[in-house]
Design goal:
Strand content of chain A: 15-25%
Distance between the termini of chain A: 45 Å
Pfam families (chain B): BPD_transp_1, OppC_N
Largest sheet of chain B: none
Main location (chain B): membrane
Mean pLDDT of chain B: 84
Oligomer: heterodimer
Structural class of chain A: alpha/beta
Keywords (chain B): Cell membrane, Membrane, Transmembrane, Transmembrane helix, Transport
Membrane topology (chain B): Multi-pass membrane protein
Radius of gyration of chain B: 23 Å
CATH architecture of chain B: Orthogonal Bundle
Number of strands of chain B: 0
CATH superfamily of chain B: MetI-like
Subcellular location (chain B): Cell membrane
Chain lengths: 331, 316
């Protein structure tokens, strides 16, 4: 049985004039110890997905329908008490900006020890020892001294390591990392990702990595979901999605990578912007930006369906594949 | 005895940390703040140790002789050398009475502010963190409370209690009545400030991450949001202490505060007021000067603190 199983998750936001659907019928699974990437543009619903897994959607947002089964128990229906037991203990979350995620007025030690004491029956000294062990695991030099320091005394990379240590403090089964390196220096980004990968592999922790960086996803994850306008449009093994993307949007994302362009050439962007959630076009939400769009795309929403190795939500996927093969034969 | 070994640490002591902090630095660079703090400390110490410093006990009727009344201060002709600042209308040594009175004024001011802070911070935290209907309800209550002036509420409350319990009982518990009425009348100041800061703090990611770590709402409010909202609380606290002292003095001056047998600065000023035209100006003027200086230095300290803790100038 999979560790996390999301079925038909729909999250809506009740705005003043209308109700906006931020997530529309999302379904996916994460097996124990599996690493899953969620990719998409800003506003595609990646972060909302992460938040709703912890049942952290607050007003005006709400879960309209669907279920989130964690270890067989529905997170959406959990009591507040049960949720508090789950959060931090079984599921942990790492946020974008390490500069603001730690409480500025508490020392690192206070924050770590309190987290431990909130979930486990331990003495302060035992908790302190665990905190030191965890800080050592994320390669923090002289952890005993760091415990008495305040967040502002540490660098961004160091803080993100500490946040990872806090996330791992209670040996969770699943870590949700919401763009964990976006706010960091490029050189440190790679270090942090490597650390996260190493820790997930050695501790057999599941990871949901939310990012817009396809490069990171290809290094870190085993499976990938591509999201667009609150829906999953392509899902499958990361290798297949990166090497042979089926959906025109995923193809566009990969072609837009700077590595795919020769020096001196213009970057191949996807034309246009993602539609605002209040104004999603009828049919396939991607159709106004899609060069292959047909009348069918403009009127009917494509269902996500198995196609070869991956699941794709596109009407034209078969035609595209045939065309691609023809071009290859010509060349 | 336990044989606990304390490992010596190379890091600076708490005191030198305070002295070398941004606040300590700006304090040393600001002569107004330094002088204000020195004067405030002198007044506070003198008031606190009044029983040891004062030559007479103004609360002890046995030490008071009505024949000594209205002697002028020592530098004026006709003064008695044992009464440095002269005597009041009942023959009490003015210097001793001022010391005891200042002590009362400070105690009432600080306790009333502690009560205000307790009520205001609790209500502000709840309103800001929980929000929604509770927020609306509490803030409308605050608006209603603010639309009554503090003095009006206090006068009505004190007059009613005085009539209910009779003068004697009232005089006995006047300190508590004053603390209660000044404390309750001014809580909205705190509640509004705290609520505004909580609304800003609540959106920060460390609150999300506290929720993600499975902390309950009580803990998040008290342990995470409150310590991050302290700077505005400090600033209004100083100003509110000054305000509370003034309120107490005004009420006592109107005869609704401390009784003449246990005078605060306000009731001392009031009792001397009857004699000001018969030439005994010192009974009113000297306690008046003490009151003005006390309130002034507290306000100056509050001004300095507001500048230092201003988030636009200083990031904590």
């Amino acid at each position: 049985m999979s560790l996390l199983s999301v079925r038909d998750l729909t999250v809506k936001f009740a705005m003043r004039d209308e109700t906006v659907t931020a997530l529309n019928g999302i379904s996916f699974d994460v097996a124990k110890g599996e690493r899953l990437g969620i990719v998409g543009e800003s506003g595609a619903g990646k972060s909302i997905t992460g938040f709703s897994l912890m049942n952290l959607i607050s007003r005006p947002g709400y879960v309209d329908r669907g279920e989130i089964l964690f270890d067989g128990e529905d997170v959406v229906k959990m009591s507040d008490k049960r949720l508090r037991e789950l959060r931090g203990d079984k599921m942990a979350m790492i946020f974008q900006d390490p500069m603001v995620t730690l409480n500025p007025v508490l020392t690192i030690g206070q924050q770590m020890i309190e987290t431990l004491l909130a979930h486990r029956k331990l003495s302060r000294e035992e908790a302190r020892q665990i905190a030191i062990v965890k800080l050592r695991e994320v390669y923090i030099p002289s952890p005993e001294e760091r415990l008495d320091q305040y967040p502002h005394e540490l660098s961004g990379g160091m803080r993100q390591r500490i946040i990872i240590a806090i996330a791992l403090l209670l040996d969770p089964q699943l870590i949700i990392a919401d763009e964990p390196t976006t706010a960091l220096d490029v050189t440190i980004q790679a270090d942090i990702m490597e650390l996260l990968l190493e820790l997930c592999q050695s501790n057999k922790v599941g990871l949901i990595l939310i990012t817009h960086d396809l490069g990171v996803v290809s290094q870190m994850t085993e499976r990938t979901l591509v999201m667009y306008a609150g829906r999953i449009i392509e899902a499958g093994r990361t290798r297949e999605i990166i090497n042979d993307p089926q959906h025109p949007y995923t193809q566009g994302l990969i072609n837009a990578l700077p590595q795919q362009t020769l020096p001196g050439q213009k970057l191949r962007q996807i034309p246009g912007n993602m539609p605002s959630l209040t104004n999603i076009p009828p049919g396939c939400p991607f159709n106004p930006r899609c060069e292959y769009a047909t009348d069918l795309c403009r009127t009917r929403l494509p269902e996500i369906a198995q196609y070869g190795q991956v699941q794709v939500a596109c009407h034209e996927v078969q035609r595209l594949q045939a065309e691609g093969e023809r071009q290859e034969q010509k060349a | 005895m336990s044989t606990e070994t304390i490992t010596p640490r190379a890091e600076p002591s708490r005191w030198s940390k305070i002295v070398n902090s941004n606040m300590g630095y700006s304090f040393r660079r600001n002569p107004v703040a330094v002088v204000s703090l020195i004067i405030f400390a002198l007044i506070a110490i003198a008031a606190f140790f009044a029983p040891f410093i004062a030559p007479y006990d103004p609360y002890d009727p046995a030490q008071i002789n009505i024949m000594n009344s209205e002697y002028p201060p020592a530098w004026i002709d006709g003064a008695l050398p044992e009464f440095v600042l002269g005597t009041d209308d009942q023959g009490r040594d003015l210097w001793s009475t001022i010391l005891y009175g200042t002590r009362l004024s400070l105690i009432i001011g600080i306790c009333a502010v502690a009560l205000q802070a307790f009520l205001g911070i609790t209500i502000g935290l709840l309103a800001g963190y929980i929000g929604g209907r509770l927020d609306n309800l509490l803030m409308r209550l605050a608006d209603i409370q603010l639309s009554f002036s503090t003095l009006m509420v206090a006068i009505i409350f004190l007059a009613v209690t005085q009539a209910m319990f009779g003068s004697e009982t009232f005089n006995q518990y006047a300190v508590f009545f004053l603390i209660a009425v000044i404390g309750v009348a001014e809580w909205p100041q705190y509640a509004r400030t705290v609520r505004a800061t909580v609304l800003a703090e609540k959106k920060k990611e460390y609150v999300d991450s506290a929720r993600v770590l499975g902390f309950g709402p009580m803990r998040i409010m008290v342990r995470h949001i409150l310590p991050n909202s302290l700077s505005p609380i400090f600033v209004i606290s100083t100003v509110q202490v000054a305000n509370a002292i003034i309120s107490e003095a005004s009420l006592s001056f109107l005869g609704l505060g401390m009784p003449p047998s246990q005078p605060s600065l306000g009731s001392l000023i009031s009792s001397g007021f009857d004699y000001i035209f018969s030439g005994s100006w010192w009974i009113t003027v000297i306690p008046g000067v003490v009151l003005v200086v006390l309130v002034l230095v507290i306000n100056l300290l509050g001004d300095w603190m507001r500048d230092v803790l201003n988030p636009k100038l200083y990031k904590g």
